Structures are given as structure tokens and as C-alpha cells.
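name: query_chain
kind: protein
chains: 1
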Amino acid sequence: MIDNTDDISTSGFVPSSGYVVSGRFSEFLELPSRGYCRLFKAQRNGQWFTLKTLKPEVANDPVYQGMLEKEFDLMMQLNHPNIVRVYSREEIPGIALGIVMEYVDGRTLGEFLSENPSRSVRESVARQLLEAIGYCHGKLIIHRDLKPSNVLVTYNGNRVKLIDFGLSDSDHYAVLKEPAFTKAYAAPEQLAGEEVDNRTDLYAYGLILKQLIPNRYGRVVRKCLQPRKEKRYSAAEEVAEAMASCRKWRRVMPWGMVAMAVIAVLSVFSLLHFSKGETTEPMQPSVESPSSVRDTVFLAEPSQTQAAESAHNRTSSHAYEDNSSGTYVKDKPLTTVSNPVDPPAVVARRQRTDSILNAREQEKDQAQKDLDIAIYNFKFTIDSMFKPVDLYVKSDEVKTSNILRDLIYIAEYKAKIRECQIRSRLPKSKRNSFFNYANDQIGAKKKSYTQKYPPIPQYPNEQQVREPEIYQPILEQSKKYREEGRRLYKEWMELMRKVK
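structure:
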């Protein structure tokens, strides 16, 4: 019998006198938060949870209540290991009605990157985030606010947890669909107030991937960040396939370069060996007839006629040159041997040319991207400039065609000023294109008011509007608008002189 006390199991919990399990929330700890919501860490049934409620200043606002309810409804459809889990929506004693969520012991993606993690861990995080995005899209849910602060990475295992669906949207909803985003990670269509889809989230993912793994997935990032969403990937699965292709190419590329180098060395060796074999053969003058002596031209101080004849002989397919004797002999096939290795000067010149051409292509691509972004931004700008016109036409006040004309005039020159400001930041090669586009848009916008709305009566005089309380405000309003229009026109003229 072996006496070994290590065989006796002594595993177990250390007793604690403060062990309490409650079915009610307790141990509340408020967490840092931005926006319209408050976050709490709380304990129930021995587990930690995150509680999300509205801040007191918006707690009674129906819009924010609807946003919180919509967020809960959307997140209840999601069950993925890389998305924070939602359990219920209930009244939290002492706080307010809120969402009960999974508690994540982790840090934001930005804090995670500040720790300088290894490349393999970064690759894993990028893959997990893309899987979470693809899962959301499969449920017809668009996050619309992807950014590093909405991506948590756990301390234990570096697992990704996508959070904050407060601005998310789905095709199932017909309400609360107004534009929503964080400007730094917003796609051009979001900035322009247009409809968004899966490709909007993939734009933000491209920005995150660029920070997460720089200088590795350049081709994938460029396609994700295309200003026109039609040119981006249409699904997260396509992004994953493109990233896998990049990784495969990086693994194969070193071996391919080695193989190419070996082939190049063997080719040079073969050419040099062939050249050596050709040039070591002794050259014999032709002895078929006495005339062969007359066909031999000695090149010691040749005359002009001899030089011309020698040049002709060098290009003939029936001549060869005896470099050892300095003679050209006819009636023999010519074997031309070229140096397989270019001189360093030729190589350097070719590299400079390629570098210049590549730089020009990159400049053209960047200029086109700048133009596309400018067009998107201007489209959003022009709508906001003409919004006062829409409000005036739809209002119940006494309307006149004069004031409508003045408002259109003001909106037109505000848009033209904005056009000058944007055009001044564009490359010169794209300025004319943007100028033509902007003027076409402004003209179409002005024309739409004559087609969309019925004619408005001319400015009323005192006989038409006898009530001073109606006439006088119209007169003052018109005067103010005209002064504003003249000021904007002068400002536009000054900018036109500066921007060519």
C-alpha cells in the first residue's frame, strides 16, 4: 500500500461569510457612457449584467423611448458569440425602464490596439468582427455606427463583442430611419443623407481594418473605401474571401520569387554559355573562289565608301564579323549575340520611368476619389441650402412670388459659394468637372420649384393687402432677403476670382 497524501482531493471553494445571492439587481456601478443613454454594471443571481437606460433629460421624450425600444427589438434577434447578448427589457428599481444585457469584461478596440498586440491576434480580431457584421447583415440589420469604441475585445481570450445598436436599422422598420452616424467613420452616402445598405457598414469596416492591420490588406481596404457604394464589396463574405486570397498570396509569393530568381539565373547562364560556344569557333575565310579575296575588306582606317559598305555588311544576313582580325566576310550566316544583362544605367532609367508612371496613375486615382467624395458632399449641401425654400412654400403664411424668388436666390448663391470652397480643395484636373456638375445641380434644383409648386401671386401692394399687420412684415422680410442675396453674390464673386 502506497501512502500518498497527494491522492486525497482537497479542491474546493474558500468559504466566505459575505456570500449572498439575490434575484434583484444590486451592487450598481455606473459606467462611462456617451450619447443619450446611461450604463450600469449590476449583479443578479450571482452574475454581472450591463443595464442600459435613458438619461433623465430625455427619459420622457417619445423619440428616445422609441429608439431604445427599437434597439432592444433588433438586438433580441441576434444570437452570435461576437455580438453582445440582450436578455430582457424591464423596469429597474431605483433607475428606470432599461435593457438588460450581457456584461463584457474587456476594453475598446482603440485601447486594445494601444497594447500593441501581435499580428496573429489582430488577424483574429479582424476575422471575428467581420463575422459579426456578416451575421447582422444576414438578419437584415445594418449597424450604421461601426467604430472602434463600439467594438469590445475581452481581456480573457481576446474575443470580439460588437455593441451599441442604438443607431441600427432594419428593413422591417418604417420609423426612426433618419440619417445617423459618427462622421469620422461614415460612408459618403450617409453624409449625403441617402439610403444605406450592407455596403455602408463595409465602408466603416475598411477604415477599422486599415487601423487594425496596416500595410497588409491594401487592396481590400481600397475596395471597401470606394466613394461609390456600387464599386464596393456587396457582402461581408466577399470581404472575407478577398482577405483569404491576400493571405494565400503572401504565403506563396516568397517561393514564387525564389523560383523566378532561379529561372533568371539559369537563363543568364545558358545565354552566356551559348555565347561563349559561338565566339570560340575559329573563323575561316571563304576559299570557294578567288573572288573571296576581293570580298575581304580590311578596316584599318577605312574610307567613307568602305565604312558604308561595312555598315551594309553588318546588317546583312549573309555576313559575319571577325573581331579578332577586324574584317567582314560575306557568304556566311550572321549570329547575333546580345548581352542578357542590361547595363545599370538602363535599369535605373527604366525604374525611374516606372516610378513616374506609377505616381501619375496614383495621382489620377486619388483625384477621381476626391472628385467622387466632393460630389457626394455637394449633393448633401445643396439640399440643406434649399431647405428654407421648401419650408416657405409649405408654410401657412401669406406667400408671394417675390419672397420665393429671393429665397431661391439666397439658396443658389449659398450653394455656389460652397461649390467654390469645395472646388478650391480639388486637384486642378478635376475642378472643371466638379464646376460643371455643381452648376447643373443648382440649375436643376431651381427649375424643380417652377415645376413642383403652383404659381404664387406677385408681391401684393397696399391695395391688395390692406391689413398693415400682413403687408409690413412681408415688406421687411423681402428687404432683408434682398440684402442677404446681394451680400452672398459679392462673396461668390470674390471666391470666383480666387478659384480658377
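note: Residues 278-339, 459-463 have pLDDT under 50 and may be disordered.
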